[in-house]
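Quick start: read one record
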Amino acid sequence: MTSLARGLCVLQSFARHKRSVTSSQLSASTGLSRAAVRRCLHNADPAWVAASEDSTRYFLLPKVMTLGYAYLSSLPLVQAAQPILDCLGDLLGESCSLSVLDGEEIVYVLAGNR
């Protein structure tokens, strides 16, 4: 479980950086050692989570979004809110979104079509 927690911490830290980051940058933002960060990146399936073009800078791959989708698809609120957000967006001529509170942060989980 410690390995999973560390891996998720490394994944989250990508959000604090630009497109690609070094293991040193990830280490500084996570508080993990560079060796632990490298183990997280190298032990993950390279076709699934993160990749590197030059073995020094890493970037996330689109398939990592399936982690977020697993959360979203399990929320009945998301399924119920989509048609309402779409209708409200059409009525107001504005974009509408649904967010949830995660600790002290707001996380947008759904956007209505306009």
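The longest strand covers residues 105-111.
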